[in-house]
Amino acid sequence: MKRAFTILSMVIFGGMLVYNCEPDPDSLGEQLFLDGAANGKEIAYDVTAYNIDNNDSIRTDASKLGLATLGAFSESQFGMQKASYYTQLRLPAYDPDFGTNPTVDSVVLVIKPTYASDSITTTTDENYIYPDGSVPAKKVVNTYPATKYGRTKFNGGNLTVKVEEVTEFLNGYSDIAYSNKVYGSGQELGTKTFNGKVSSVVLTKDSDNSQLFSSEVGFRIPLSASFFKTKIIDKKGQPELKDVASFIRYFRGLKLSVTESNGYLVQFSPSTVELIMYYKSTDTGATTSTQKKYAFSVGNGNAHIGNYEYNRAGSALESAPAPNTATGDARLYAQGMGGNSIGIKFPKATIDSLKKLYQKNKAAIISAKIRMYTDKTTFDNRLKKPTILTIVQKDIDDKGKPTTNFTQDLLLLSVTPNFAYIKAYDLDKNLSYYDFTVTQSIKDIVEAGVDYSNKYFKIDMGNFLSSSTGTTLAGYQFTSRPFALDRAVFVGSDPSSENKIQLIVTYGTK
Fold first, then answer.
1. Per-block mean pLDDT, blocks of 10 residues, the chain (510 long)
2. Contact yes or no for 194/159 (Cβ under 8 A)
């Protein structure tokens, strides 16, 4: 195991890269070309490719949710996808003292969607009046477009974001949660229209240029001040605020959702969410109240759960035939966040043909790639093409139990120069394609006689994640699939299509 992770550390700098160039032979067989030692030939073979239905569900608890997703998006191939987000919150310190006669001025929930930092619009108000004390000030707002996926101009580019109190316990940070689980929610605490943009604000006093207020780039949602007065302030000294176990069962969390069923999806890091309560109270020994800021702990250490809702009615995916693992499916539907995966097997005829070539012609396999094209007819749209996908190998061990692992190429070939387990081509065009390197797997079967009767590959949207050190991969099971927005329709085992999925083998003979 230790050796595997040492090898895989190179993948982050080599194998995880996607190149947009002409296919090259793998370094594994490149010695066959040196000094004219062999003639390289390329031939295409059939593979059996089919859809894998994941029941629109995937683990989305805090350990899996690298990014939270919010929004809704509908299109003809995959139907409607709607994403909501649950989060716990904690007190920064327990048994808090809010001073004498505390009153809540405002409460703000801040999420920080990803955005295009190189596209900025700045507005300045030199005549702004700061409301607390009517202080003359200058207000500078920097605005950026959020990164969006879907119909960005639908409904004027607006989404209505709603925040509700969660009424069902979300369990702990390390507990497993799935994307199709709907947790109970109750009182609406706030709502605000998101126009697809995020902004930062800086307020400075005119008299001495001192800073009155500042906020990082984000989207601020006002919440009910009266709710937090009753829920938090008025509970001073009560058991509900004494310790974390009591608090997260008393105030179970927040749910963020949108009211629309079409539009776009945006993402933000759960660890950067903020919940701030602004209140006034009189300190001990003082005679007047002062403004205070109380920041709840919403980021790390809390339960964070993605909830994904799908409606496939009327979509191409709904009307597609049931997955055919025997001869394959003509169209392959791959979607992140619990949608379909793709399975690929090597037919007996393909392996028999390669073995015959190897045994009779002494043909050594130089490279082998599974080539998969997007379907230019059904998936002709403006959606961003996925830049990378994951591939793992599935099998049955000698005890009859299913196994999953990185491909043999990732485990054994990632240290070779310029190795990439996937390469993407023509992503700016309607017809794009992807090459998945499976050289070592094919060599093992054809040249070493490894059993392949139960072996297949599973392809998913997303990327392999690195470990906490950033120098190795965390493991085959740690990917961005739980929050990958990408989806695409590919040409599968369709004998009538010139772009059908195939195994491209380059071999050399002496």
1. 36 41 47 48 96 98 96 97 98 95 97 96 94 91 97 96 98 96 97 97 94 94 98 97 97 98 98 96 88 95 97 97 97 98 98 94 91 95 94 95 96 79 95 96 95 97 86 88 98 97 91
2. yes
Secondary structure (3-state) at 468: coil
| Separation between Cα atoms, residue 335 and residue 433, nearest integer Å | 16
- Asked whether 45 and 353 are in contact (CB, 8 A), the reply is yes
For residue 463, which phi and psi values (nearest 5 degrees)?
-140, 150
Amino acid code (one letter) for 60:
T
CB-CB contact of 269 with 67 (8 Å) = yes
Count CB atoms within 10 A of the CB of residue 301. Answer: 14
Closest CA to 47 of 358, 435, 426, 429: 435
Q: How many CA atoms lie within 13 A of 454 on its CB side?
A: 11
Name residues whose C-beta falls within 8 Å of residue 143's C-beta, 6 or more positions apart in sequence.
120, 121, 122, 123, 197, 198, 199
HSE value, Cβ hemisphere, 13 Å, CA-based, for 321 = 10
247: exposed, middle or buried (C-beta count within 10 Å: 0-12, 13-18, 19+)?
Answer: buried
Say if residues 62 and 270 touch (Cβ distance below 8 Å). Answer: yes
Is residue 243 classed as helix, strand or coil in its secondary structure?
coil
Nearest to 458 by CA among 481, 427, 424, 426: 481
pTM exceeding the 0.85 threshold for the entire prediction = yes
Do 69 and 146 meet the contact criterion of CB atoms below 8 Å apart?
no
Cα-atom radius of gyration of the chain, to the nearest Å? 28
